[in-house]
Amino acid sequence: MSIEGFCDPRFAGVRDAFAWCFAQGLEHGGGVSIVVHGRTVVDLWGGHADAALTRPWRRDTLVNVWSSTKGVVALAIAMLVERGKLDYAAPVARYWPEFAAGGKERVTLDQVMSHRSGLNGLAVPMDEAGLLAWTPYANALAAMSPLWEPGSRCVYHALSYGHLAGEVLRRVDGRSIGRFIAEEIAVPLGADFHVGLPEPEDTRAAEMIEGPQASDWVEFVRTSAFPQACDNPTPRALAPNDRAWRAAEVPGGNGQSTAHALARIYGMMAAGGTLDGKVLIGRAAIEEAARPRFRGMDDSFALPAAFAAGYQIEDPVYAGRASPQTFGHTGWGGAIGFADPGAGVGFGYVTNRMVGFDDVDPRRKALIDAVYDAL
Hints:
The protein is of the alpha+beta class. The chain has a single domain (3-374), classed as 3-Layer(aba) Sandwich (Beta-lactamase), CATH 3.40.710.10. Helix content is 31%, strand content 17%. The protein is built from twelve helices and 16 strands. The strands form five sheets. The chain has a seven-stranded antiparallel sheet with strand order 1-3-2-15-14-13-12, with helices on both faces. A three-stranded antiparallel sheet has the order 4-7-5. Strand 14 (336-340) and strand 15 form a beta hairpin. The radius of gyration is 19 Å and the shape is globular. The protein starts with a strand and ends with a helix.
């Protein structure tokens, strides 16, 4: 199995680490890309886009990156904060009046973005079709009471995060979150990233493969004290193989992306908001979005967590190697994108082999260690 693409000789260790993932049987198909100080130094791909091994992975193969989508949504919100259309400290109900129902009039956008709003899922039955249709799910969030006291704890908003942030954006901007990302982020950057994939692009979408332990976290959350994130509906590892899932906008987890797209988006932020002469957002707005909001235990996973405004920070996968101000977001089963402003690094890794590990994903660790070994 050959690794295709480009790799600056200085970063040859990344190619070796990527090949190692395949040799160890950890990988099926995927890509890794790195942008350093605005320049692409790695853009590699390999393996297959389908379980039957009939479709080689190509540079433009798209794959569902699950919660790595959340980081791009966070960028969209940060752009509107910078423009004065949103305020992290403001109540969500200022922008979405119906949201005040159920005693939520004081829940802030900041609490939503850092998984502290008390809305980690729905308290009423909702099938996947309602999630994909947007309005039923968003309306149910607006109507419900918090599941726990907002601001009192952090409980990961696996799916609800995207509809909460996306509906706030729609109320002030008029566009859906998918259209905003396309017009304001993806097209200007030349980043092949989609929330709501047009049908003609389906031929580029990789088939997701559920590997060992991939769904263990779903069952863990469903038996926790805060199970709602994995009920109404229950996340399905193979949902991205359905056209209905790819077509919908589920900004908590259905972004379709290449590795290079994630690297360009985060490379832009690592460089202070500018890439290839295009200015998307100012450095101060990025720093505000990446400012810590929560450090402590995520009560749904019973694990330490740290969040900024929609970004994971201080992630153990790069702890000790990356600069302290590094921020980004992982995705179910493997994907990750992050920006390290201190090193000027934008990193993207995507895969269609969803695997769960008892500790840090060894694929991520090998690739990220190789980047920092080269710097």
